[in-house]
Specification:
By secondary structure, the chain is an alpha+beta fold. Helices cover 21% and strands 15% of the residues. The chain has a 4-stranded antiparallel beta sheet with strand order 9-12-14-13, with no helix packed on it. It has a 3-stranded antiparallel beta sheet with strand order 19-21-20. Strand 3 and strand 4 form a beta hairpin. Helix 6 packs across helix 10 and helix 9 packs across helix 10. The protein starts with 38 loop residues before the first strand and ends in an 8-residue tail after the last helix.
Length: 601
Amino acid sequence: ENSLKYPCPAGFICGFGTTPDTKLEAPSGQLSHLCDEGRYCNRMISEVGNEVCPRNYICPTGTADPFEGRLANDGLLRMLPSPFSDESIHLHYLHGENFGFYCDHEMKCAASTKPSLKKRFQTSWKLPDETDSILEYLTRQQKPFSISMNEATQLEATCERDKKSHFIQQAINRNDCNCHSKFLILAAIYRLWKCTSINPLDDLGLGEPTVPSMGNGKRDFWYSDSRVHLDRQSATAMDPSMEPFGLNWGEGKVCKFLPSNNKISLTQGRIPHSRDSPIHARGIPSESKGYLEFEDVAETGNVDVRFPIRFTWQSFLVFANYFELKTSAVDEFKRERDAVAAGKRSNIDPFVFDIFKSIQLIEQYGEKLEQFAYLEATNTSSSLSIELSYVDAKNSSALYALAGRLDWCECENILKCPNGTATSGVGAKGMNDCVSTNEEVIHRISLIPPPPDEIAKPMSTGEGSIDTDSSRLVLKPFETGILTVDLSMLPNNITYNDHYRISIYDGCQPCPLRYKCNASNGHQPKTCFNPPLERQYEFLNGCLKKNRKMVCLRDDGTHEDIQKCYSKTNNSSSARSSGSLLLFSEPDLEKCLSRPYFCSD
C-alpha cells in the first residue's frame, strides 16, 4: 500500500509488482517499460499508456507529456554517456535497398529491438568484488557465481531508448528550440541557487521526481549518483536518515563567480544580457551585470540579492532569492499548463517555461548539473554554436558551442508538429504523421531586391512577424514590371501551390506569418480565426517594446520638431531636459497600430 504514494516516472509504465530498481537487469524495475508510442504516460499506476496522443502532437516511445515536450529522459535518468560523444559511423542495412548511417550508440539501440536477441541469454561469471549494488547480497557467498542476462537487455542498458537527444537536435535544426538561451537562463538561476538557497533541495520521490504526499522520498538512495546537494547541512536537513546511505554534497554557498574567455558554465564566465545578444539572451536584463556577483541588501530576515530576470513576455521582475523565484514560477507554470490542456492558451509563456524547467533541473540534480550543461569557445560554426557579443566590453564577440550533453535541454515544441503541419487525427507516433495543412504562411520572401544603397535584411520566420521593410515596386500608368525568378535551387519534391505560392499585394499589406484567415464570401468580410486575441495583444506589445521614437516637448506640452530639438540640446544620445525643451523616447504607437496584428484589422 505504501508503494502507491510514489508516482511512476513520467514516460514509463508501472504495473502492480513494479520494484524501485533503476537497473534494466531487474525485470520489473521502474525503468523497464517505456510508454508505448502513440500514447503518453503521466499517472501513478498504469498497465497501458494513460492517454492517446492529442491531435497535432507526436508521441514516440517514452512520451511523458506532449504539451510540455517532455520525454522520459531515459539517458539522463540512468546517467548514460551522451550519444553524441561517439563519433564512429557505420553503414547499416535496413530493408530492401535501404541503408542508413549509424553511430555505435544507434547500432546498439537498433540491435536491442531484434526479436532474436530477446530470446538469447548470455551467462557470465563474476567474483564478489566485481558485483554492483543490485547484486550486493550475493557477495556473502565469497566465491564466483554465474549471472544470466538477456542479450537485448544488455544492449538496452547502454542505449538512450527515448532518443531525447535526437529529438532536441532535430528541434534545434528547425529553429524550434533555442537551447543556448535556455542554458543562459539555467546558469543565471543556478547561480542564484548557489548564493541564496535557504532551504534544502526537494525531498523527491523514488519514481517521478516530485515530493511524495507523505513520508520521505528516498530518491537519493535509488539514484545514488544523480544529485549533489549544496552542502552537508542542507543534504542532511532534507532527510537525516539518508546520511549513511551515500548522500552527495558540495562545498557550500558561492556568491562570486569567476569570469572566463574560453567557457561559460553554471559557475564560470559572464552571462550575456539582452543588449549583448538580443536573440539568445533576451531573458537576461542588462541590470544583471553578467550575474558574476550577488550582494545581499537585506538588513534583516531572508537573503535579498535583488535578482532581475524576464519572467514573462510582458514583464521583467526582481526576486529576493531562489525560494521566492521558485514559488512564483511553479504557481504560474501550473496555471498556464492547465490553460493549454483546456485549449484556452496556444502555448506556455516561453520565459515562464524556461524558468520552471531550470528550477526542476536544479531540484533534481543539484550541483551535478555542472557536468551536463556548459558552453565552450570554438572556431567552428554549427547548429550548436552561437556568436555572443558583449556591448560593455568594446563590442567584443566570440563563438561558443554547446559542449555538454543535450538531454538536459527542455523544449516545449519538440513533440508538436512543425509550423504549417498537422496530424490527421490522434495517436500520432512520429514526425512522418505531421503533414502540410496548406492553411498558413510560415515564411515569406520578397521578390523585389532592395535599393543599391541598402543591405538586404533577413526575413523573420517567427509567428506574428510582419515584413514592413521589404522593397515595393511602384509602377506608373501603362508601365509593366517583369520579374525573373530563379527556382533552380528548390528541391525536386517542392510543388507550386502545394508548398509555395507567388502572391501580389496591391495597395495592402500581407497578414502576419502563421495567421489563419477566412476569405470573404461576398456577404461577410474576410477575417482571421487564429491566433487567439490574447496572442494578438502579445504581438502588439512586443512591437511597442521593440520600436521607439524620439519626442520633443515644449514647456507648455506642445510638440517641437525633433531636428530643432536636437540642435538646441546638442546631444541626441540620451533623453534629458534642456531649458524649455524635453527630449525623450516613447513607444511608437502609430507605427505598431498601422500593422495588422488584430484579426479585426
